[in-house]
């Protein structure tokens, strides 16, 4: 096979135990997710020669690979927040296509909820007081405050309403109700969202993601391995990545996320248009993230996200099903959630999503999906277009 020309497929995906997992370490969740993904693919661990991990250990890919019994010849420890896993998937796909690796395992695991419950750490997300961030820290710029400022700017510029933002949370919960593994499944209303305790104006509690434990794993392999795998392949069609800022004063426009660039690149490289996508899995730490990412990926024009998310369009049976597992708002959010987006996108394309399975006209399975992760406070974005 000519280097750089090999097709690359996702051949295995899995989640570890998720939600409330008080009796496991992050390493155990990594291992559980990895074993399940390999079993899903029907691939022996000895064939994995590439490994990608971030967020755990002194030397993340080395320490976690050792724990999993792997000795990879290709590694990646890219750490750009929640979009890390879409960016890693892009790097892994490039490496496999070029012949630098045959099968690459991406793994993540976190006990973010259990650690706080047990007093092992606090939920402080104010971030560093050194480097460029030191100029914002004295003003109380926590992570959520940065997202709240961006949401308020969109509301000011385009007339986006609190009700429209709340509808994102309502529809995420409706999707979660169909997912037996979602952490929160009870229906909520717009009034429930609007009347909740204020966290950071304009975000009340239900505008914000939950905090959970959990892990995920995704296995990518070269096309020649596909015939020996037990699952139908889901192909990597196109990827894109982009970084924007860390300091809010260096962000040119609070209403434009880096997905505007990563999405354009991914769709161009895949040779597909946004209106051809059947399922979208988008990072949703806050309701505004979903709305602005839909705009920036080209599903609607800039400023029209508020109208776009209304009337059930994002539900499993809607015009553009988004975060079909319930997303970070209702299913699970153990920290850097980007890998969970890829798992759900693959399951939807393989027709393995159970009651939340998206169906096209005539009951056909979806053909194309997009997974787009966001890192930091719209600091980075990675977008992956997948197809059956």
Relevant CATH superfamily = Thiolase/Chalcone synthase
The unreliable regions are none
CATH topology: Peroxisomal Thiolase, Chain A, domain 1
What is the molecular shape? Answer: globular
How would you describe this structure to a colleague?
The protein is α/β, with parallel strands linked by helices and 388 residues long. The protein is 32% helix and 17% strand. It has one domain: Peroxisomal Thiolase, Chain A, domain 1 (3-Layer(aba) Sandwich). The strands form two sheets. Strands 3-2-4-7-1-8-11-10-9 form a nine-stranded mixed β-sheet, sandwiched between helices. A hairpin with a 2-residue loop joins strand 5 and strand 6. Helix 6 (162-176) packs across helix 9 (287-296). The longest helix is centred in the first third of the chain and has 16 residues, at 26-41. The two termini are 22 Å apart. This is Thiolase. It holds the Pfam family Thiolase_C_1.
Short description:
The protein has helices spanning about 25-40, 60-65, 85-95, 110-115, 145-160, 160-175, 190-195, 260-270, 285-295, 305-310, 325-330, 340-350, and strands at about 10-15, 50, 75, 105-110, 200, 205, 215-220, 235-245, 280, 370-375, 380-385.
Task: Tag the structure with descriptive keywords.
388 residues; alpha/beta; Peroxisomal Thiolase, Chain A, domain 1; 9-stranded mixed beta sheet; two-stranded antiparallel ribbon; 12 helices; globular
Topology:
Layout: E1 8-15, H1 26-41, E2 50-52, H2 60-67, E3 74-76, H3 84-97, E4 103-110, H4 112-117, H5 143-158, H6 162-176, H7 190-194, E5 198-200, E6 203-204, E7 214-222, E8 234-243, H8 259-270, E9 279-282, H9 287-296, H10 305-308, H11 327-330, H12 338-350, E10 368-375, E11 380-387
Parallel strand pairs: 2-3, 2-4, 9-10
Antiparallel strand pairs: 1-7, 1-8, 4-7, 5-6, 8-11, 10-11
Helix pairs in contact: 6-9
Domain Thiolase C-terminal: 240-388
InterPro entries: Thiolase, Thiolase-like, Thiolase_C_2
Protein name: Thiolase
